[in-house]
Amino acid sequence: MNPRAKIEKFLDTASRSRLMVYACVLGLIALALMTWSLFDQGWIPVMMAMSVGQGIGTLSFALFLVIVIIDLRQAEFRPSIAPLPPKPEDD
Amino acid sequence: MHVSPLSWIALTCALVAAVIMIYYLIYRPPLNGRVKALMMLAVGVLPIMTAMIGNLEGLQATEHQAFCGSCHTMDMHIADANDAESLSLAAIHSRTIKFGDKSCYVCHKDYGMFGYAMTKLGGMGHVYMFLSEYMWYDMEEALPKIHIARPFKNDNCMQCHSTTGRIWNGVADHNGLLEDLRTGTTSCASAGCHGYAHPFSKPDEETPSHAEAHSSVQNPSPEGT
To answer: Domains in chain B: how many in total?
Structure first.
């Protein structure tokens, strides 16, 4: 199976709520790391916040975007303007 | 610990985001449009604001002595810089308001066009050296091994001491070495001139005499230098 097919299969079968749970857990870890540096400005908290913290936060946001992509793939788009009614044919 | 108003904004954003995420984890509401908009706020907008403010505050924090001194190998450098009795270049400069709590950064930063980025890159090098080697040493082991990565640039001294002032040019040694000092051939912070900025770390090297150091303390001359 090529990578594109793998991704499509993942998007078709992935559980949105499970992805959201992962996104939330990663988001909480990222926030903890980022806020740590606001109180303790030694090199470890500052560097952790600006590298690991933001990396995990980006991953969390990426998972949320995956959920949005899944929704968009499954959405049924309807035209915003209703099609014109068929013209009554002249008898 | 100093928490700026900006940090409180970041903290508020983080708290609101955390509350929303914890709410989701506990109640698991169906992901309809409204919940997704809320989660966009919790996972995207608010953490990004926290990260941006965190970057700002973090980069500012890197300019303070407390950041440099958070590696144990810098303990003696910070202690000397803040010693009111010390006559080292680092201590003399740290006592002035232009340097003060940021004396490490003001002296060691790169003043070039991309100075800020280059200084931060240099700092990453320090982190690498600390993690790969120096963190395992105690102070006595580390001190003889600590050395500046590149020779200290006279350009940094010349940010304040322009070499054009009357008092500065009145010093015979300055006059004789003017071009060498401007081009950096002779270092201001070298043995025979003003001595090393952190002389305790080079006990065998020549440092300025007490008389010379006292005269520079008693007659601070920022104007005309």
So the answer is: 2
